[in-house]
Amino acid sequence: MLKDLLLASLHHLLFFALIAMLVAESVLLRGRIDGAVVQRLARLDSGYGLSAGLILAVGLLRVFHGVKGYDFYLHNPWFHAKLGCFVLVGLLSILPTIRFLRWRKALAADPAFVPEAREVVAMSRIVRFELLLVAAILVFAAMMARYGGF
Question: Which residues contact 101 (CB under 8 A, 6 or more apart)?
Answer without folding.
Answer: 42
